[in-house]
């Protein structure tokens, strides 16, 4: 089944060019089906690039998914045209009285910024608290995972001495957990962060199920037992050249970054990188939609209640 997004969204033509089934709003309205309502809170500066990446992963499901784009505030951005934001993005005030099947909170370039110094920290707190009563399952990605752990478990910010950048091997810890269904015992996924997530630290300070870890990158995937909150510390949505663009940007700013690990052939930035995580990214999002959202959410979102959710699969 397709994702349903506005016809004029830039991602529409890109995804159709990739032979991805994108349904028009007119066609979707004629179908006798209740699509999943998913809200994407996009915190990244290059919003068109990021929304396309996430929409691509959400499309790989037998479920019809109706995606709405949410912005954190109305400040202008130099990376995304104001017309695009005004046309396709909603303010929180426009959605706060509604319920959603799923919420995705993206990463943000705030790895070295203290939470209390983030300009929209109060807004993030408001939305995450709202989600407890209005969203079936929330997927926190990269910086959002760190923010979610702070707000849900009061974990302080933990920062690495050097940026973690590259594509790392991970191993799974519970092959029978539905979020990991179909995963290989080991898989590759990209990371680009300063945050530090060690398995021991999460085990000591939270009741999360730690589902996948890396010897080099620490915890990659964790979830609450009721699957209402899922934390992904990496970037399964990244395009093949996203890490490359970040590396070139950092070099241009005189930051002397390390070459992303296990990314360029022969570890040579002059060689075109190869994507080795696409299958994992699609499977992760498909599992999240199916087992954390579709299997848990009420048919009538107006009857949303925490009583709908159990710890059983």
Describe this structure in words.
The chain is an alpha/beta fold. The chain has one domain: Class I glutamine amidotransferase (GATase) domain (Rossmann fold), CATH 3.40.50.880. Helices cover 29% and strands 23% of the residues. It is built from 9 helices and 12 strands. The longest helix has 17 residues, at 278-294.
Topology (elements, then pairings):
Elements: E1 3-4, H1 10-17, E2 22-23, H2 25-29, E3 36-41, H3 47-58, E4 65-70, H4 82-88, E5 89-90, E6 100-105, H5 121-134, E7 135-141, H6 143-153, E8 159-172, E9 186-195, H7 199-205, E10 209-214, E11 218-223, E12 229-232, H8 242-252, H9 278-294
Parallel strand pairs: 1-2, 1-4, 3-4, 3-6, 4-5, 6-7, 7-12
Antiparallel strand pairs: 8-9, 8-10, 10-11, 11-12
Helix pairs in contact: 1-3
Question: What share of residues are in beta strands?
Answer: 15-25%
SS class: alpha/beta
Major β-sheet annotation: 12 strands, mixed
Number of domains: 1
Task: Supply the CATH architecture.
Answer: 3-Layer(aba) Sandwich
Share of helical residues: 25-40%
Compute the gyration radius: what is it? 19 Å
Model regions low in confidence, pLDDT < 50 over at least 5 residues: none
Mean pLDDT across the residues is: 90
Q: Total helix count?
A: 9
Coarse morphology: globular
> Which series of helices and strands comes N to C?
EHEHEHEHEEHEHEEHEEEHH
At the fourth level of CATH, the homologous superfamily is Class I glutamine amidotransferase (GATase) domain
The first-level CATH class name: Alpha Beta
CATH fold naming: Rossmann fold
């Amino acid at each position: 089944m397709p994702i349903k997004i506005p016809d004029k969204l830039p991602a529409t033509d890109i995804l159709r060019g990739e032979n991805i089934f994108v349904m028009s709003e007119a066609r979707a309205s004629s179908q006798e089906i209740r699509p999943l309502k998913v809200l994407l809170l996009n915190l990244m500066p290059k919003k068109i690039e990021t929304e396309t990446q996430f929409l691509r992963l959400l499309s790989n499901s037998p479920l019809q998914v109706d995606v709405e784009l949410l912005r954190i505030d109305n400040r202008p951005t130099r990376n995304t045209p104001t017309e695009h934001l005004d046309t396709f993005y909603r303010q929180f005030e426009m959605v706060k009285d509604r319920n959603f099947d799923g919420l995705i909170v993206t990463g943000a370039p705030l790895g070295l910024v203290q939470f209390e110094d983030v300009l929209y920290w109060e807004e993030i707190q408001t939305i995450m608290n709202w989600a407890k009563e209005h969203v079936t399952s929330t997927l926190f990605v990269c910086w959002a995972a760190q923010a979610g752990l702070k707000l849900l478990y009061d974990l302080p910010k933990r920062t690495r001495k050097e940026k973690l950048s590259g594509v790392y091997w991970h191993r799974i810890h519970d092959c029978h957990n539905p979020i990991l269904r179909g995963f290989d015992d080991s898989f590759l996924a990209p990371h680009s962060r300063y945050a530090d997530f060690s398995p021991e630290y999460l085990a000591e300070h939270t009741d999360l199920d730690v589902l996948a870890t890396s010897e080099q990158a620490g915890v990659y995937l964790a979830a609450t037992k009721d699957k209402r909150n899922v934390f992904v510390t990496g970037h399964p949505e990244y395009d093949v050249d996203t890490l490359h663009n970040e590396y070139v940007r950092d070099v241009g700013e005189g930051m002397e970054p390390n070459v992303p690990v296990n990314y360029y052939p022969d570890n040579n930035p002059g060689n075109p990188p190869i994507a080795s995580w696409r299958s994992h990214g699609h499977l992760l999002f498909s599992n999240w939609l199916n087992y954390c959202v579709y299997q848990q959410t009420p048919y009538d979102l107006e009857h949303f209640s925490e009583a709908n959710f159990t710890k059983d699969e």
